[in-house]
Amino acid sequence: EGIDLVKRFGGGGLLASPTIVHAVDSVSLSIRRGETFAIVGESGCGKSTLGRLLLRLIEPTAGDIRYEGRSILSLDPKEMRQLRRELQIIFQDPFASLNPRMTVGDIIGEPIWLHGLAKGSERRERIAELLRTVGLLPAHVDRYPHEFSGGQRQRIGVARALAGEPKLIIGDEPVSALDVSIQAQIINLLEDLKERFGLTLVIIAHDLAVIRHMSDRVAVMYLGEIVEFSTTDELFDNPLHPYTQALLTAIPVPSPVNRSPKPLLQGDVPSPTAPPSGCRFHTRCPHARPICKEQHPSLETAGDGRKVACHFWREIQNAGASALSASP
Ligand code: SF4
Ligand code: MG
């Protein structure tokens, strides 16, 4: 049986804080063991909330989260500790998420101590091994986070996540605070570690370019809802939802024919506390029609394993295809 995370929230939305009503709404997804699963969307779309719910760092007001066939809401404290060890998270800003008063050794050693994985010299050896694993040096053990570059700090965050010997790592925008050249290094590191330790990865990102080559499947979120669900290859080849299409055109393409892509996505994300009626994307959608304001599109099956929530995805797709064949 694989890792199986399912979340279902009926009608009213959720959440821990009354100010984030609708942060994640009626989301249901399951993640397969050993895959890299991406959750993408602009900030404010509920991606991080979803990540924290998966780890039960916040509690859903309704619904369920299933891991390896069991509801995590039914776990006793001991089982919950085990789950927190198996599911680790890496945050966007490695500086904010690392205690500045703790040495690298203490930061990485804490989960080892907390979960009783190793003691004394064995623990010190394990910390040195983790530092090497993420491309740092055992000699870094007595240094403090501020002595490192952004990329190195993220490596420390990765080492800490690995220290608990996890099965699944959630990266919440793990590279978006880093320079582009450093981003690739961290992505490569995560991919290597995934292979080496048989990890499952969940990558939360606003930038489709980041997940393009690393993820197997993608959920595109808009205002707390999944609007498209697809394998990564199919999503890039043939995006079905207008929001996904807009996100894709925002990626700069080094192509002579496509020098200045038209910005399809205008305006800010509306407030999640009062999402637009009907289709939540209607205020920004270039294909919106009157019914879009009235009726909420459900997530429907659109071919093999794909899902899309748009009243007009078929028409939009056909129009796109005929425009393509009509051009010389
Ligand atoms: Fe656009 Fe309407 Fe589809 Fe929503 S349902 S994405 S507004 S066309
Ligand atoms: Mg976020």
UniProtKB/TrEMBL annotation:
- ABC transporter domain sequence ranges: 1-248
Gene Ontology molecular function: any one: ATP binding
Protein localization: Cell inner membrane
**UniProt xrefs under SUPFAM superfamilies:** P-loop containing nucleoside triphosphate hydrolases
- Keywords on this record? ATP-binding, Nucleotide-binding, Transport
Membrane-spanning segments = none
**Membrane topology per record:** Peripheral membrane protein
Q: Which family does it belong to?
A: Belongs to the ABC transporter superfamily.
**Which PANTHER family has this protein been placed in?**
D,D-DIPEPTIDE TRANSPORT ATP-BINDING PROTEIN DDPF-RELATED, TRANSPORT ATP-BINDING PROTEIN
Q: Please report the name of this protein according to its UniProt entry.
A: ATP-binding cassette domain-containing protein
